[in-house]
Amino acid sequence: MSRALTLRMLLVASVATLGACGEDARELKKADFIRRADAICREANVAVDKLQDEVNPDDEKAFAELTAKAFDLQLDALDRVKSLGTPDSDAKAVNEFLTEAEESFAQARDADTEFNFGLAAKRIENLAPVAAKLGFAVCGTR
Question: How far apart are CA 142 and CA 130, in angstroms?
Answer without folding.
Answer: 12
